[in-house]
Amino acid sequence: MFRTLLALLVVSGTLRAAAPLAVASPDGQLVVRLSLPGAPQGGLGLAIERQRHALVTADLGWCIGGTDLLAEPKAVGVQSRASDSTYRVPFGKNNPIRDHFRELTVDLESTGRPAYRFELVIRAYDDGVAFRYVLPPQAGGETVEVTDEPTRFHLAGDQRCWPLYRESYTTSHEGRYRPAPATELATNQLIDLPLLAEYANGVAVAFAEAGLTDYAGLYLKAEATDSSRRLRCDLSPLPGQRRVKVRATLPLATPWRVWLVGAAPGRLLESNLLGNLNPPCAIADTSWIKPGKASFYWWSGVQEPFDVPQAVQWEKAYIDFCARSGFAFHTVIGTEGDHPWYYQSRAGYDPPGPDADLTRPRTGFPLEDVIAYGRRKGIGIRVWVDQKALWGCLEPAFTQYEKWGLAGLMVDFLDRNDQEMVRFAHAVLESAARHHLNLQFHGVWAPTGLSRTYPNLMNHEGVLNLEYLKWSDRCAPEHDVTVPFTRMVAGPMDYHLGGFRGATRAGFAPRNLKPVVFGTRCLMLAMYVVYENPMPMVCDTPDTYAGQPGFDFLCAVPTTWDETRVLQGEVGNDIVVARRHGAGWYVGAMTDWTPRTLSVPLSFLPPGRYQVEAWADALDSPDPNQLVFRKQTLTSRDTLELRLAGGGGQVLRITPVRR
């Protein structure tokens, strides 16, 4: 389905003399107004309203060669259009996806020297607002340097925000969120994206970026004003640079700057806006792209033996475990003594050895035999690599991986988001697509919707997750129920799932070998539903899962969805998510350390009778790894009471009853 309306209005003179411009969302609830004067120093001003209530006011800025193009520009023309289309994706949280917006494009000319002709493009969706700049080829110049993007914005009123502060531009993007009123945001500290803010009436706004491919990643910094805080955009500089953030050959289009908007924080998790702001799929044949669960034995601390004959049997035993359990992938990582699977003369994962060679396995290890064994068992083999070892050998490595028959790989330790690293990550993704390899990135910025264009991008980390429990107590249940509303609004979130040794708060101690996790078994199961994660890990050891309650659910739960509903939730307290796969529904509920009883109407289901299977916390047991299983027949008119232990959860499988 595709319908497009296009109208053209030509104006002249400066924007100060022009009538205010506005574009509304298709449902009319969101309105974006563009006018001058905006900032105290002049320039373009943008304001967002929801149901006639102010949400955001912004003063826009974009500096080329040190000159702000948005300081008193002239308007050359204005174009408006509306678009309504749908598309399908190989995996996601909804399928098909609707892409419905109204757009305003303002043709501008800067007043400095040299004068640049450029565009400001604004889109209004029912679930948010986005804008970007487009700089076409210019007479007398083919290249430009972006030196700043000093857009500043206020959130109307005083909201509660959930910032993730970062110490520098070289970061794994993994940390704890520090909620605070907007007026108390720490100043002059980097704030990672997305940034969530919740208004007093429950309306939620998250600032994010979309379509990041050959540009610097974006942060925010809070600046003090007389009575509040304003947020200033801050681009990650090129390595060794402070002034230059982006070097580009024209034409240049910036990533989209996005305000996701919802009536409640949970509505943001249902949005497909960041994907909609990316180009359509660039892969002609996506039939080889098949998400699914993957082993990842590094988390358990139980590594492959260094002895080659033992290692081969060990890997085959893991493949057998995956095949018995219905998992799609087994990941080959490294051995005892921290030797990666690929050749290098010394031990150590990061940094890789100076003679690391990603095109051949470590001495004597028959990786091709392991891949062939996996193929016979129906299990795809993936490998882990350090991104530093990929520089300079990307094509040779991926050509070899395709020849071997690898299914994909994890690329780890990106740890920066300057233009150079963003460009490299995109090259990795594009090359992997040509060689039929699926990808997950670790130590990486939050997703920007790029999996719409390259659906072989299965997963992103960029979140403090269960691996931290190997050496700290930082990934506790209150964090587990914060990240769905903060980091996950940007897209898929890899979390090292599957820990089956749960512990109470008093009984927890970090350890590297066979680590324990905070909370109950059902909290761990619920993450497979609550978290958007097309390729979730199964991190624990096969013997840990043997005969354990709840493993049947872990094996059965899908990883891709046709529909997603957030039924209820409060940031940092609790969340209930329902996801549909075909005709069946799965529900996951999670809480912080506070025990809760959550009332969940089944009205999200179509009319009819349903078999409801529940895996619930064993509230009368001191062992957090115990659960109770119940089965009953209910209708869409019924309401379930979900009783959750402190640090607990519950999962449901809901199947229509056929007459």
Can you offer a commentary on this structure?
By secondary structure, the chain is mainly β. The chain folds into 3 domains: 2-276, Beta-galactosidase, Chain A, domain 5 (Distorted Sandwich); 294-559, Aldolase class I (TIM Barrel, Alpha-Beta Barrel), CATH 3.20.20.70; 580-656, Golgi alpha-mannosidase II (Immunoglobulin-like, Sandwich). Helix content is 14%, strand content 37%. It is built from 11 helices and 45 strands. The strands form 10 sheets. Strands 1, 8, 9, 10, 11, 14, 16, 18, 19, 23 and 24 form an 11-stranded antiparallel beta sheet that branches. The chain is globular, with a radius of gyration of 25 Å.
